[in-house]
TrEMBL record:
Any single Pfam family the record assigns to this protein: ArsC
Protein family membership: Belongs to the ArsC family.
Protein's organism: Pedobacter suwonensis
InterPro entries referenced in this protein's UniProt entry, alphabetically: Arsenate_reductase-like, Thioredoxin-like_sf, Tscrpt_reg_Spx/MgsR
NCBIfam families: arsC_related (TIGR01617)
Protein name per UniProt: Transcriptional regulator, Spx/MgsR family
Highest taxon listed in the record's lineage: Bacteria
Amino acid sequence: MTVYGIPNCNTVKKALDWLKTHQVEYEFHDFKKKGITAEKLNEWCNIFGWETVLNRKGLTWKKLTKEEQAKIDNQDLAVAYLKENTSAIKRPVIEQNSKAVLIGFDEDNYLKTLG
C-alpha cells in the first residue's frame, strides 16, 4: 500500500494515525520531495474525477485569482496545474496493488475499504 501526500498536512496525519492504529503497513510518498507524474495524476482523475483530485479548499488554490481558477476547467489543465502545484492535490491518496482506492480521509470509508 502506498500513501501519497505531504507530511505536514493535518488530513494526512489523521490518515496515517488511523493506519498505524489499525496496524496497516504502508509506504509514504511525499509529493514535495518525490513529485508526481502526469500519468499518475491522470490515473487518479480517471478514478475519482479531476474535480475531486483538485483540492479547491486549500490555500494553494485560494491564492489563485478567480480568473486563474476559472481557466482550469478540464482534466488536462487540472493535471498540468497539479503537477506543478502538488499542494493543490487532495490528500492523502491511498493505493492498494498500484490502484487508487481512497482520497482524503473519512474513517467510515477507511473501515469499509481497508478493514
